[in-house]
């Protein structure tokens, strides 16, 4: 059990901890936002190179995943305006949604990090076996020669679901053996989809944090196993951060100005904190002070908030606080934050809002009813941040708001209908001020 009453715990933190213990919705404002800190090992150049690596792989990806044909092998999602929600919630500035629920391959934000890390490993192996990354055609990686090399290796990852889809489908497509370790929160359709694609799925009767530890151990036993570590991988982080360059281009194509007077406020759902931190980091590189990142977590699993507010990061979990960690947001059901998210976000994250499951369903209903957008429960919580923004003095009326929707298009139609019947009922019963 971590020491949460130690010297880092101020009076402010203890009021906050009481609210968290009580499962109340709250907002934590990061006291270190915009302070100057030493640079860390992932920097502008690492992210720049990650974007270039994904461009080199585009010819391969275009052949491997037909839904990337339109974008010529670049795995990306659109940004759209949400005027109905803007009016409904009386927001002054422009309200946008980033449709990562439509991301090719995994139908979630995990297509950014998971695919990138598998491609890095594949490129490494290929180069060791005579592939020239500067002059050879990446479509050649689909040839028998490379598939045979890849098939000697097993790629393993622990996941609540979507990272498993992203890593598992990319790995098996390249010819790797893939093994996904899943926590008891994993939904049946995600497990089935992986198994149908020849991926070995191991289910633990345990929470995500313990499943990761078990998976890491299992991978260590096998010299031909490569482990994608959701709790600490800098490659995953870099993959997520490639979003920065792309969003900058998309907003510029939409003629949306982003500046200190017209900041971009971005609302990102956080589980372990890896994907939202990577994206926020990538956006900070592009927009600097003009972007204001805010995370949103379930009231039952505020893991990144707890780690950052206490300064204990990965050394504390929501179970230490006595929380049950239970939420219908399977993608956010992560009790212990990542080893790197808190460090990389220390001066870059504006704050974190928490949301009840009840309101999460209301937002899912709101998205469906007002905008006809279908997203999974984890993906919609950004709306809580949007509502909160009205009470944040640093956010001017001129701000542009970007809700990052993180997953949904792979949810089977029948499961989605069940989610939405429930969500629309709750939306109709909810009073929004
Ligand atoms: C994984 C996931 C998140 C959160 O990402 P973390 O890296 O765990 O913080 C949010 N939404 C969905 C749909 C996800 O699958």
UniProtKB/TrEMBL annotation:
A GO molecular-function annotation: D-serine ammonia-lyase activity
Protein's UniProt keywords contain Lyase: yes
Cofactor names: pyridoxal 5'-phosphate
Pfam families assigned: PALP
Reactions this protein catalyses: D-serine = pyruvate + NH4(+)
InterPro entries, A to Z: D_Ser_am_lyase, Ser/Thr_Dehydratase, Ser/Thr_deHydtase_PyrdxlP-BS, TrpB-like_PALP, TrpB-like_PALP_sf
Domain Tryptophan synthase beta chain-like PALP intervals: 72-407
Keywords: Lyase, Pyridoxal phosphate
Protein family per UniProt: Belongs to the serine/threonine dehydratase family. DsdA subfamily.
Annotated protein name in UniProt: Probable D-serine dehydratase
Source species of the chain: Oenococcus sicerae
Gene coding for it: dsdA
């Amino acid at each position: 059990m971590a020491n949460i009453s130690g010297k880092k715990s101020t009076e402010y933190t203890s009021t906050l901890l009481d609210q968290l213990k009580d499962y109340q919705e709250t907002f934590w404002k990061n006291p270190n936002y915009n302070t100057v800190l030493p640079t860390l090992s992932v920097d502008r150049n690492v992210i720049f190179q990650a974007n270039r690596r994904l461009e080199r792989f585009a010819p391969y990806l275009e052949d491997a995943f037909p839904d990337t044909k339109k974008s010529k092998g670049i795995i990306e999602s659109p940004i759209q305006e949400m005027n109905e929600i803007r009016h409904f919630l009386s927001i002054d500035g422009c309200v946008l949604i980033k449709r990562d629920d439509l991301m090719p391959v995994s139908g979630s934000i995990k297509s950014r990090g998971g695919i990138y890390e598998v491609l890095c490993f594949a490129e490494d192996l290929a180069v060791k076996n005579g592939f020239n990354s500067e002059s050879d055609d990446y479509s050649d990686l689909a040839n028998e020669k490379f598939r045979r090399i890849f098939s000697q290796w097993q790629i393993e990852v622990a996941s609540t679901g979507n990272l498993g889809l992203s890593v598992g489908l990319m790995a098996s497509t390249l010819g790797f053996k893939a093994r996904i370790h899943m926590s008891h929160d994993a939904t049946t359709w995600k497990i089935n989809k992986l198994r149908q694609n020849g991926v070995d799925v191991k289910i633990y009767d345990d929470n995500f944090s313990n499943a990761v530890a078990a998976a890491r151990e299992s991978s260590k036993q096998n010299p031909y196993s490569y482990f994608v570590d959701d709790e600490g991988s800098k490659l995953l982080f870099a993959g997520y951060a490639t979003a920065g360059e792309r969003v900058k281009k998309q907003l510029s194509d939409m003629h949306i100005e982003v500046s200190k007077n017209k900041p971009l406020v971005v609302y990102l759902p956080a589980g372990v904190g890896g994907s939202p931190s990577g994206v926020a980091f990538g956006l900070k590189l592009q927009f600097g002070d003009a972007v204001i990142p805010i995370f949103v977590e379930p009231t039952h699993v505020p893991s990144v908030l707890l780690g950052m507010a206490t300064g204990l990061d990965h050394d504390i979990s929501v179970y230490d606080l006595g929380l049950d960690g239970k939420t219908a947001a399977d993608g956010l059901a992560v009790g212990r934050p990542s080893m790197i998210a808190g460090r990389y976000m220390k001066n870059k994250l504006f704050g974190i809002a928490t949301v009840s499951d009840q309101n999460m369903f209301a937002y899912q209903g709101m998205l469906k009813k007002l905008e006809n957008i279908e997203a999974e429960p984890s993906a919609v919580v950004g709306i809580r941040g949007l509502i909160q923004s009205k009470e944040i003095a640093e956010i001017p009326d001129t701000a542009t708001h970007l809700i990052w929707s993180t997953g949904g298009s792979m949810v089977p139609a029948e499961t989605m209908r069940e989610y939405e019947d429930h969500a629309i009922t709750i939306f109709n019963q909810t009073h929004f001020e």
